[in-house]
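Before going further, learn to read the protein records used in this course. The integers have meaning only within a learned vocabulary of local backbone shapes. The record below shows the convention in full.
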Amino acid sequence: MEAGNITTVTAFVLLGLSSNPQIQVALFVIFLVIYLLTLTENLLMLVVIRTDSHLRTPMYFFLSHFSFLDAFYSSIIVPKLLENLLSKWKTISFLECFTQISLVIFSGATEACLLSVMAYDRFQAVCHPLLYVVAMNKKVCAGLVGASWAIGIGTGLVNTILLAQHHFCGPNLVRSFACELPPVLQLACSDPYSSIASILTTMVVLGLGTLVLLLGSYTRIIMTALGINSATGRSKIFSTCSSHFLVVTIFYGSGVFRYMTPASGSALEQVLSMQYSVVTPLLNPLIYSLKNQEVKAALRRMLARKPRLTF
């Protein structure tokens, strides 16, 4: 849209992963299967946790919220990706693009907070087992989850509102398969200082803050585990915490690097974006279920349960 000598972008074009029609069809099938598996796995995790009385503990309460966020996160990205793979015009409106950016930041920030909360829960369970029930009562758990969601919503809104204040005069080609803050900010014609400052503040305060809490919790957990004489006790602690630590490593390894480096549209950036927005939500429920004996036992009980017929 043009007014006088000022041109304003009203839509963006997502360049996507490939311009080859045959590759696009193959990618469509692959990502459709991944998306359906992601929804099935995370919804199954939610059902198992909500229906099995053995899993009504703080750890699984937090995990249920994490599974919901994984399914939600994937649903922000993949449906539009699938649409563009089969569409000739790979456009996304200004409003739709900024909504996607806001929801991506919200999901990432909320997951970062939840990962810290889950590490704190394990710290209390391992280091203060006698006080665990008191320290992690229902009110505390609900407050921690509520705070995580509130921080996520606030982070998403602040960063997106600041980004929307910029003037976009063209070009409108986003070098990615989805609207994310770094590649879209690169298209701003006005001074991006406020958004860059906001991103860096978010990464330092939220990213580094949650990482410090995670490392602090796991340092205490490892020290406590090493002080236990029983090999079985140590093995149980490491088995319980290893799945969470693996998820943390994947999350921070890809997400932090993606947002802390300048956007260039490189293949590495595409791979990192794909990892934390498409692959990670698929892997998380597998990591938690395959490495967790309680979840596997609950899943077996649910599958073995005979449906009750009522007339």
User: Anything to note?
Assistant: Strands lie at 2-3, 6-7, 11-14, 91-93, 173-174. Residues 94-127 form the longest helix (34 residues).
